[in-house]
Design brief:
154 residues; mainly alpha; 6 helices; binds protoporphyrin IX containing FE; binds isoquinoline
Length: 154
């Protein structure tokens, strides 16, 4: 499937909406991840010692934003180059960090569902099947690059 200019525009537009309320959406993102996979809580250093999800944790916010941003950048690359290329250093680092924390392929599906649901809530009436598909494709490509690097390092 081709990633069109419209797909890219849809992703960018919804990211602009998300950016207006990062604290809320990063918290939602995380809450949904843990609703689907409660055991994932112990994988995250900033959650391990707390009973509930901290509401104003700078680390949580920063990490969640990186996931959104990287997926958005993947959409831009998909449209420009037809593929997602993650910088060598970044990819090595992400591969290592996820491997070390015990992330497996199945978890990527969980994070994908959580990401899409967060965007659905954020975009509200602008949400569409097309928008979902565009974010989904961009995320899948990015996830594939990280997963491949994790296998490389394992
Ligand atoms: C850390 C991105 C998928 C679990 C990180 C960091 C980034 C990131 C940017 C922070 C690195 C740092 O600055 O220290 C992504 C992206 C993903 C993805 C772009 C998918 C495309 C996943 C999945 C899981 C996961 C599927 C499993 C539930 C973690 C954990 C950490 C982490 C446990 C370490 C957090 C900590 O304790 O500091 N990820 N991630 N990630 N990620 Fe992901
Ligand atoms: C790191 N990796 C994947 C998903 C995340 C969500 C919130 C915070 C950090 C994350």
């Amino acid at each position: 499937a081709l990633f069109t200019e419209k797909d890219e525009a849809l992703v960018k537009e919804s990211w602009e909406i998300m950016k207006q309320n990062i604290p809320e959406y990063s918290l939602r993102f995380f809450t949904i991840i843990l609703e689907i996979a409660p055991a994932a809580k112990n994988m995250f250093s900033f959650l391990r010692d707390s009973d509930e999800i901290p509401h104003n944790n700078p680390k949580l916010k920063a990490h969640a934003v990186k996931v959104f941003k990287m997926t958005c950048e993947s959409a831009i690359q998909l449209r420009e180059k037809g593929e997602v290329v993650v910088g060598e250093t970044t990819l090595k680092y992400l591969g290592a960090i996820h491997l070390k924390n015990g992330v497996i392929d199945l978890h990527f599906e969980v994070v994908k569902q959580a990401l899409l649901r967060t965007i659905e809530e954020a975009t509200a009436e602008k949400w569409s099947e097309e928008l979902k598909c565009a974010w989904g494709v961009a995320y899948d490509q990015l996830a594939a690059a990280i997963k491949a690097e994790m296998k490389e390092e394992a």
